[in-house]
Write a structure and sequence with these properties.
It is a single chain. The chain has two domains: about 50 residues; about 170 residues, Orthogonal Bundle (Arp2/3 complex 21 kDa subunit ARPC3), CATH 1.10.1760.20. It is built from nine helices and no strands. Helix 2 packs across helix 5 and helix 4 runs antiparallel to helix 5. Keywords: Membrane, Transmembrane, Transmembrane helix.
Length: about 230
């Protein structure tokens, strides 16, 4: 099923690019539609993965935590535990599950903080964060707090760049290299605060989160041997 979904979305994506190019549709619309397709793609992977109810409960809990715990930190620019929660979810539950936690965290929290065109890009940014940490776990199976914390910090900047690109492409004209660099540089202070916050949350809580979630997953994994 995963191969079928991959093939189907590859064909749809190529066809979409050709259609958008033929009708000379703007770059902003092209990128927005691509972001929507990426989110749909991961939701389909999640749907056909056959996740049991126990793991689904954990995913729902982590998504709720990522959304709700963001709200009390709204008064502190870019400092919130959501990125850390998404990262630890992807690291322990898997890439697809981490993506779902990231998407839902943004969607839930913005019911309180305000929805807008930025919501899609927050969903995509945190979703990709979950995917990254799921891949990281496959590359480095043994948990290392130093490596985990470093990448948590880096994702403060990566997430910021994703949001910056949406702003630059959508609102800045003419679109030049200098405009892109200026757009990224303008949020450097806020991205740095995001990164520092991620590092602090990781140092304080990542050991406990990873240990608890790993134990939970192993507890409910059942292997049948013929």
């Amino acid at each position: 099923m995963k191969k079928l979904i991959n093939g189907l979305f590859f064909v749809i994506f190529i066809a979409l690019i050709l259609i958008l190019t033929y009708f000379n549709i703007g770059l902003n619309s092209t990128i927005t539609i691509s972001a929507v397709l990426i989110i749909i793609y991961f939701f389909l992977l999640f749907e056909f993965k056959g996740i049991d109810s126990k793991k689904l409960a954990v995913i729902s809990t982590m998504a709720a935590m990522g959304g709700v715990f963001r709200i009390p930190f709204a008064g502190v620019p870019n400092v919130q535990p959501t990125t850390f929660i998404v990262a630890v979810s992807g690291y322990t539950l898997g890439s697809v599950e981490g993506f779902i936690v990231g998407v839902l965290s943004a969607f839930i929290s913005n019911f309180f903080l305000g929805h807008g065109p930025w919501t899609l890009w927050q969903m995509l940014g945190w979703g990709l964060c979950g995917v990254f940490f799921g891949v990281l776990r496959k590359l480095i199976s043994n948990y290392n707090i130093v490596i985990f914390t470093i990448f948590c910090g880096l994702w403060g900047f990566i997430y910021g760049i994703i949001l910056d690109m949406w702003f630059v492409v959508g609102f800045i004209r003419p679109l030049t290299i200098n405009a892109v660099l200026l757009g990224v540089a303008s949020s450097l202070v806020f991205d740095s605060m995001h990164a520092i916050g991620n590092i602090i949350f990781s140092i304080l809580f990542s050991n406990k989160f990873v240990k608890i979630l790993d134990r939970f997953i192993k507890r409910f994994e059942v292997e049948y041997i013929d």
